[in-house]
C-alpha cells in the first residue's frame, strides 16, 4: 500500500507539472532540490538533528515505572530473538550419537583426565574436560523430554549408557596398570563428596550451555560449560574406585556424576519450555498420548531425584555451616586453653557432631549448656558426641571440681593436693634419669632428615615442627610425639586433613624404620 501510495503521489506531481507549462521548469528544479535534500537527510549519518544533552523523561510516575519494567523485560528476555529451531535440534541430535571419532575422543579425554587425577594436576584435568564430548547425550535427554521427542529420548539414553560404559572401562584399565598410589590424592578425594554448590554449578552451567546452543553460540561457551559442570573427573574417580576396590570412591563419585547429569538435563528442559520450542506431533492420537505419558514419567524420574538431591545437599551444607559456627561460638569459648576437633557427620535421620576435647575437662553442667545452645544454632536434631582426652592436669582439675562441688571436705582436698605433689616429684625424678640416659646415647631418630623430607615433599606447607614429650601413666614414663604444621593460606581444610593423614603415616613409618618404635598415628595440629 505504501508503494502504491508513493507512486500515485509521484504521478500526481508529474501531471501537475505537465499541465502547467509555465512553471514546468521551476517545478522540475524544485523537485530535484527536494530530492537532493531528502537524500542528504537519509544518508548524512554524521549529522544529528536533536540536542543530545537534553534528556527526555516522562513525568508521569506510572508511565515511568511501566517503561522501566518494559526495559528490564526486554533486556532479560530470551524470547525476542529469532531461533532456528531446526538447526538447533539437528545439532543436538548430531551430538547425541557416540560412534567412531566421538568414541575415540572420549577415550583419549578419559585417559588424560585419569592421568591428571593420578598425578594430582588440575591443569591436566581441565585440558581433558575441554576436549570431552560428554554433554551430547545428557543434553539430548533434556531435548527429548522438552520436545516430546520419544525416539530422541531413547537414543539419548542408549548413548548415555554407552558413554558411561566406555568411560568407566577406560579409567578402570588405566588405574589397574598405574603404578602410582593415589588413595590420598586431593583431586580424587574432592570428587567423592558432592555438596550444595555442585548442584547449583551443574544447573547454571547446563543452562548457560543450552542458552548458547539455542542462539548458535556454542563455540564461545561450550568450553567454559565443560569445565564448570565437571562431568569427566567423577567418572574417572568412579573408575579408580572400581579398579582398586574402593567402594566409597565409586559410589561417591557416581553420585556426583549423576547429580551433575540430572541438573544439566533439567536446565535444558526448563529453557526449551521457556523458549516454546515446537513439540513433536504424531499421526495417531493414541500413539501421541502414549508418548506423552512415557515422557511425563521420565520427566518425573528426572525431576524427582534432582529435587531430592538438591534438598539433601542444601540440608548437608546448612548442617556443616551450623556445626562450625556452634564449635567456634559455643564450644571454644568455654575455656581459654581448650583445644577442640569437630567432626560433623551428616545423616538425614540422625546427624552427629563429634567433638574431641583436649586440655580441658567438660563436666555435666557444661554439657547440658552445650545441648541447650544447639537450638540457637539450627542443630535441634543433631546428637552431640563428646570425647575427652585427659592429661594429668585435667584429671586433677576434675577431681578438684568434684570435691568442691559435691563435698566440702577440706581434708580430702588437702590430701589430694599432697598426692599430686608427690606424683609430680616422682615424675620429675624419673624424667631427669631418663634424660641422662638419652643424653648419654645417640638419638636413633634423624629428625633433620624427616623434616627436610616433609618440606621437599609437601609444597603446601610453610612451616612444620616435630615435638617430643614425656608422659607419666601408671608408674611408667612414655615418650609421645606430636607435629605442628603451618599450611599456606590458600590450602582448603579438606586438603589439609588429607595431608595431615599422609604426614602421620610417613612419620610413623620413619619411627619404625629408624628406632623400631611402632605407632599407629601421631597427633597433628595447626600452628
Unreliable parts? 1-33
The neighbouring-strand order within the major sheet is 1-2-3
How many helices? The count is: 19
- Which H/E pattern describes the elements? HHHHHHHHHHHHHHEEHEHHHEEHE
The description of the largest β-sheet is: 3 strands, mixed
Approximately what portion of the residues adopt beta-strand conformation?
5-15%
Tally the structural domains: 3
What would you note in describing this structure?
By secondary structure, this protein is mainly alpha-helical. The protein folds into 3 domains: 85-280; 318-426, GMP Synthetase, Chain A, domain 3 (2-Layer Sandwich); 442-526, 2-Layer Sandwich (Alpha-Beta Plaits), CATH 3.30.70. The protein has 19 helices and 6 strands. The strands form 2 sheets. A 3-stranded mixed β-sheet has the order 1-2-3, covered by helices on one side. It has a 3-stranded mixed β-sheet with strand order 4-5-6, with helices on both faces. Helix 15 (364-373) links the parallel strand 2 (352-358) and strand 3. Helix 4 packs across helix 7 (135-146), helix 5 crosses helix 12 (232-244) and helix 6 packs across helix 11 (218-229). The longest helix has 47 residues, at 285-331.
List its salient traits.
527 residues, mainly alpha, GMP Synthetase, Chain A, domain 3, Alpha-Beta Plaits, 3 domains, elongated, disordered N terminus
Structural topology:
Layout: H1 2-19, H2 24-43, H3 61-76, H4 85-96, H5 101-118, H6 122-131, H7 135-146, H8 150-177, H9 186-189, H10 196-214, H11 218-229, H12 232-244, H13 247-274, H14 285-331, E1 339-345, E2 352-358, H15 364-373, E3 383-389, H16 392-406, H17 410-440, H18 447-457, E4 461-472, E5 477-487, H19 493-515, E6 523-526
Parallel strand pairs: 2-3, 5-6
Antiparallel strand pairs: 1-2, 4-5
Helix pairs in contact: 4-7, 5-6, 5-8, 5-12, 6-11, 7-8, 7-13, 8-12, 10-11, 10-13, 12-13, 13-14, 16-17
Amino acid at each position: 500500500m505504501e508503494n502504491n501510495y508513493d507512486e500515485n503521489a509521484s504521478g500526481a506531481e508529474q501531471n501537475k507539472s505537465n499541465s502547467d507549462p509555465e512553471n514546468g521548469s521551476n517545478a522540475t528544479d524544485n523537485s530535484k532540490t527536494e530530492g537532493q535534500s531528502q537524500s542528504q537527510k537519509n544518508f548524512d549519518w554524521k549529522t544529528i538533528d536533536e540536542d543530545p544533552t537534553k534528556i527526555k523523561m516522562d513525568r508521569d510516575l506510572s508511565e515511568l515505572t511501566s517503561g522501566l519494567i518494559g526495559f528490564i523485560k526486554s533486556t532479560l528476555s530470551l524470547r525476542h530473538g529469532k531461533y532456528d529451531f531446526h538447526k538447533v535440534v539437528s545439532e543436538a541430535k548430531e551430538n547425541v550419537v557416540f560412534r567412531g571419532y566421538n568414541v575415540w575422543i572420549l577415550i583419549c579425554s578419559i585417559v588424560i583426565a585419569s592421568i591428571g587425577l593420578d598425578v594430582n594436576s588440575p591443569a591436566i584435568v581441565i585440558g581433558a574436560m575441554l576436549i570431552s564430548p560428554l554433554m551430547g547425550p545428557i543434553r539430548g535427554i533434556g531435548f527429548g523430554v522438552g520436545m516430546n521427542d520419544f525416539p530422541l529420548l531413547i537414543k539419548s539414553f542408549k548413548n548415555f549408557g554407552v558413554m558411561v560404559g566406555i568411560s568407566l572401562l577406560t579409567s578402570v584399565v588405566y588405574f589397574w596398570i598405574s603404578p602410582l598410589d593415589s588413595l590420598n590424592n586431593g583431586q580424587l578425594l574432592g570428587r567423592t563428596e558432592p555438596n550444595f554448590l555442585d548442584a547449583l554449578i551443574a544447573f547454571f552451567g547446563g543452562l548457560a550451555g543450552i542458552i548458547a546452543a539455542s542462539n548458535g553460540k556454542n563455540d564461545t561457551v561450550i568450553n567454559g560449560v565443560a569445565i564448570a559442570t565437571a562431568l569427566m573427573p567423577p567418572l574417572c574417580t568412579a573408575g579408580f574406585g572400581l579398579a582398586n576396590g574402593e567402594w566409597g570412591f565409586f559410589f561417591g563419585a557416581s553420585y556426583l556424576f549423576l547429580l551433575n547429569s540430572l541438573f544439566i538435563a533439567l536446565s535444558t528442559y526448563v529453557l526449551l519450555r521457556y523458549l516454546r520450542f515446537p513439540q513433536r506431533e504424531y499421526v495417531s492420537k493414541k500413539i501421541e498420548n502414549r508418548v506423552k505419558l512415557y515422557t511425563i514419567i521420565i520427566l518425573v524420574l528426572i525431576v524427582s531425584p534432582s529435587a531430592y538431591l538438591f534438598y539433601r545437599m542444601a540440608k548437608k551444607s546448612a548442617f556443616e555451616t551450623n556445626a562450625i559456627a556452634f564449635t567456634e561460638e559455643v564450644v571454644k569459648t568455654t575455656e581459654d586453653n581448650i583445644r577442640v576437633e569437630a567432626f560433623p557427620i551428616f545423616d538425614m535421620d540422625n546427624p552427629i557432631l563429634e567433638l574431641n576435647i583436649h586440655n580441658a575437662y567438660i563436666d555435666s553442667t557444661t554439657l547440658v549448656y552445650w545441648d541447650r545452645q544447639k537450638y540457637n544454632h539450627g542443630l535441634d536434631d543433631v546428637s552431640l558426641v563428646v570425647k575427652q582426652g585427659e592429661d594429668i592436669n585435667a584429671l586433677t582439675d576434675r577431681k578438684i571440681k568434684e570435691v568442691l562441688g559435691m563435698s566440702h571436705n577440706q581434708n580430702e582436698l588437702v590430701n589430694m593436693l599432697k598426692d599430686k605433689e608427690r606424683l609430680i616429684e616422682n615424675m620429675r625424678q624419673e624424667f631427669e634419669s631418663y634424660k641422662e640416659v638419652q643424653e648419654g646415647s645417640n638419638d636413633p631418630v634423624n629428625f633433620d632428615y624427616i623434616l627436610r623430607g616433609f618440606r621437599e615433599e609437601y609444597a603446601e606447607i610453610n612451616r612444620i615442627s616435630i615435638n617430643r614429650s614425656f608422659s607419666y601413666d601408671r608408674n611408667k614414663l612414655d615418650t609421645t610425639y606430636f607435629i605442628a604444621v603451618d599450611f599456606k593460606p590458600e590450602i582448603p581444610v579438606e586438603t589439609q586433613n588429607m595431608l595431615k593423614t599422609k604426614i602421620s603415616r610417613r612419620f610413623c613409618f620413619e619411627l619404625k624404620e629408624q628406632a623400631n618404635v611402632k605407632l599407629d598415628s601421631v597427633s597433628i595440629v595447626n600452628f
